[in-house]
Description:
disordered C terminus; 4-stranded antiparallel β-sheet; binds zinc ion; about 25% helix; alpha+beta
Amino acid sequence: MIPLLADSNEAVRLWAAAHCLEFALEPGAPVLEKFAVGPFGDLRATAAITLWLWREGALNVREGAGATSPSVGAWYARDHRGCETPVRIVHNISKRVDEADRELLKLLAMKADDSEFVTIRIDEADPRWPEVARWVAEQNPVDIYWTEFTNEEVAAARWVRLFTDWMHGYPQPEDDYAELTYGATGCGKCAVGRVQRAPFRLKGEPRWGRRGIFQLFWVYSEFFVRPEVWKEVFRPLGVEARPVLNRKGTQELRTVVQLVANEQVSVATADLLHAICPVCGERKYLPHRRGPFPSLLAEPGSHYVKTTQWFGDGGEAFQETVISNALMRALVAHAARGAKGWPVADADMKRVDPTVKAFGGT
Ligand SMILES: [Zn+2]
């Protein structure tokens, strides 16, 4: 295995390094660390998550169906009860396709309709992924990816990052909502450090249908719920709410409130990529997408908290929202449609010693 660390193919080097670490062979670590600060891309992301899993004591490399790429269905995280679950990473790739693209998709038996603009959805565990990944690296299409967790994984997590599958419109008025809502707080360039000074405004009462929670585009720090969802799910667990106004700011809306987080918690940032703002010098982390959300550095004292860290990959900046297992369960029990949980890595994972597995506990 160790000779492969010097292989001319970088994917082979990365794969060999991951296997070395799995068997507690230290020379693997510097190889991965070099990838982890290398050019942005799949190798860098894979190296970062491998190092993270290794430090968490949860690294377990398997040969995936394709085995030509180190990212093929190879990553398993061990949860705090010792169960191994595959980390399922799903890509939604969109591209204006030409003849060559179409040939390749046909060859791979990827479903693509005849329109000029094609969107394909593929799991990294799919045997076709190495080919698709190469195509993505060459063609640079829009590639939105995330990790999928089962309901059981979400229910078992002690903390989850809250998100929603319903983005409902924009804050109002669209041109000056930031000034109206945040006053002069926060950096004018990167938006880090904004503090809410006034209620959000919406176009009107939300068209809820059967849903119970939404977010606004641009405002990824905040969640909005029906007043009855707040009363039955959030208020009993000590979460406060504040009113939301109509577009002109003259009237409180009756069917929606904004949830309020009164506590912040820091998360482990060692494996998050960040940019530093040239104006304010603050860090903004790239939104987390691979594997469980980084572990919390302290146990929150409330059920609904924000991260101390700011995230974002453009002009927006936001703090992620983390909620307790009890609150997530209450949301599920209430069937508040739209609420989704992304498990936070459990700090307990650190107690698993990788050498125990490699050397049979001696
Ligand atoms: Zn800034």
